[in-house]
Design a protein that fits this description.
Layout lengths: L12 H9 L5 E5 L10 H10 L3 E8 L4 H14 L3 E9 H6 L3 H12 L5 E9 L7 H7 L6 E5 L37 H9 L3
Parallel strand pairs: 1-2, 2-3, 3-4, 4-5
Helix pairs in contact: 1-2
């Protein structure tokens, strides 16, 4: 919500290990950021969680810019263990403006992962009202529409606009917790975590 290139706080492995070890039951691991593909401990986090035998699924929320550099390693982890890894890739007007060929690359990602049962690719699409109404057709043209969760942008963080709704959290797991990069737990209060992380460097 307040991420940017000036932010560089990442969770240490020892902090992550302590959080995972405190989970006695089966769990799913969701890695987000900022951009989790920039975290030098990403694969250490994933492999440790999976090695416990209690991690049933790994979810990576990414803007997709670095996915080409990481997909082979993600693929090998998913198939080696085997475990379901879900890649939730953002699509929005900024990414389409900044990254040439972004939708073509996402189409290639779907093609690359289509023959494995252990990688699921989903697109989290955020539209602007009255501006991005052609987005659905664009997604259909690149074969991404059926894998897309499409929402309008939310009024929070850098976007403070009364024309957009406040954030809502869609979650299908009853017992979940979120952590700041310094290990502080915010239970299910995503906004409180974001406000807290705003002041971390």
């Amino acid at each position: 919500m307040y991420s940017g290139t000036d932010k560089n706080t990442t969770m240490s492995f020892s902090m992550f290990k302590g959080i995972v070890d405190s989970c006695e039951d089966e769990f799913e691991l969701q890695l987000e950021g900022g951009e989790p593909l920039l975290n030098r401990n990403l694969y250490l986090f994933m492999e440790y969680a999976v090695s416990t035998g209690r991690c049933m699924k790994v979810i990576i929320l990414s803007n997709g810019i670095l996915i080409r550099q990481h997909i082979n390693r993600i693929y090998s982890i998913a198939n080696w263990y085997p475990i379901l890894i879900e890649l939730k890739i953002s699509i929005n007007y900024w990414l389409l403006k900044q990254v040439d060929g972004f939708l073509e690359e996402m189409n290639e990602l779907l093609f690359f992962t289509k023959d494995t049962d252990y990688i699921n690719v989903v697109f989290n699409v955020r539209k602007r009202k009255d501006v991005d109404e052609g987005m659905d057709e664009l997604l259909k043209n690149y074969g991404l529409y059926d894998r897309s969760n499409i929402f309008y942008l939310q009024s929070y963080g850098k976007l403070k606009d009364s024309n957009y709704d406040k954030p809502i959290i869609v979650q299908n797991i009853g017992n979940w917790r979120i952590y700041a990069s310094d290990g502080t737990c915010f239970n299910q209060d995503l906004i409180a975590r974001s406000e807290y992380e705003k002041d971390l460097i």
